[in-house]
Amino acid sequence: MTETSKGVQAIRWQGGVLQLLDQRLLPVDERWIDCRTAVETAAAIHDMVVRGAPAIGIAAAFGLVLAARRDPAAFDAAEAVLAASRPTAVNLHWALKRMRGVWTGDLARLEAEAVAIFDEDLAQNLTMARFGAELIAPGSRVLTHCNTGALATGGHGTALGVIRTAWAQGRIAEVYNTETRPWLQGARLTAWELMREGIPGQLIADGAAAHLMSTIRIDWVIVGADRIAANGDTANKIGTHMLAVVARHYGAKFMVVAPSGTFDLSLASGDLIPIEERTAKELTEFKGAQIAPAGMRAFNPVFDVTPASLIDAIVCERGVATPPTTAALKALLG
Ligand code: MRU
After folding, report:
1. How far is the centre of ligand 1, averaged over its atoms, from the C-alpha of 303 (Å)?
2. pTM: predicted TM-score of the whole model, two decimal places
3. Which atom number of ligand 1 is nearest to the Cα of residue 86?
4. Residue 281 is part of which domain span?
5. Is residue 201 classed as helix, strand or coil in its secondary structure?
6. Which residues pair with 235 in a beta bridge?
7. Which spans in 47-90 are helix H?
8. Is the separation of the CB atoms in 177 and 212 below 8 Å?
């Protein structure tokens, strides 16, 4: 077992085309989609062909390269279209800002920056995985939520990267992963990644988490993040907050794993983080078939904010903040 994920990749930059593994179809079909314009890239982000905060940032960076290649004067418009594709993951804006910072009209320089964002993400994940794994005692049982693996990043993963590395180091006895309704990132994507690597895992319904934590010992709940405010409040997939409350109640530790591009130090606290709401159909329909009474309204926020007070450790590539206070995060991130 090597430390890195076994060839799982969701993003390719080949021959000037952005290729994305269509995550709407996994685990049944492995089909790739080509993006040749910024508008196509923004649509792929919005429609969740590509998803996961770091992966969204990487895709957006290549979207700008696609736009500038076609027409250098279209840079600003492309940036606006990409920035509007999804609201919560700050990695998107972080990547766009980084790309703007190097844009002088030099296409080769722009492409090199996008490639660097992609490559650095994998390197950061491997570093975070080692930091996070050190916190996990041998024989631990862990619970994770959503998909934070190679599919959601430039490779290896954030929270799932810690789990991969901790498992390779013999620290993990069992992984539980939530199905993550309504989009089923856990059932469809995390389960797929775990099974590809033979990591012992069991899927649970989201609503089974309190039962699980009250009946067997879960040592760590390990999740990723879409945006972390200056005080450590963390936006992540809907249901994360609920898991943190239950974890605190039953004595499981709670770890958030995210690269520095996920921190938004301009926001003092998590109540300022924009929370994406998606179509009610994600709740009232399943695979296009109606499951709720016709006309039923539905509230579908797809992220929530976990207060820093419920988080035991935030791991980023620069180190670990435990507990993640404003001062500890400032010292970590500068
Ligand atoms: O809606 P998604 O699938 O983009 O949400 C993904 C998550 O919430 C992940 O936990 C987060 O982006 C971290 S991914 C490394």
Report:
1. 9
2. 0.97
3. 4
4. 135-333
5. strand
6. 227, 305
7. 53-70, 75-83
8. no
Q: How many domains does the chain have?
A: 2
Find how far residue 4's CA is from the centre of its chain: 17
pLDDT digits (tens, 9 = 90+) for 271-297: 999 999 999 999 999 999 999 999 999
Same domain, 182 and 55: no
The CATH number of residue 222's host domain is: 3.40.50.10470
Distance CA 27, CA 189 (A): 7
Asked whether 85 lines ligand 1 (CB < 6 A), one says: no
Q: Are residues 144 and 121 located together in one domain of the fold? A: no
Do residue 55 and residue 165 come from a single domain? no
Tell whether ligand 1 has an atom less than 6 A from the beta carbon of residue 53. yes
Residue 130 lies in a domain: no
111 & 154 share domain: no
**Residues 104-117 pLDDT 10s:** 999 999 999 999 99
Helix (H) or strand (E) holding 173: strand 172-178
Do 31 and 157 sit in the same domain of this protein? no
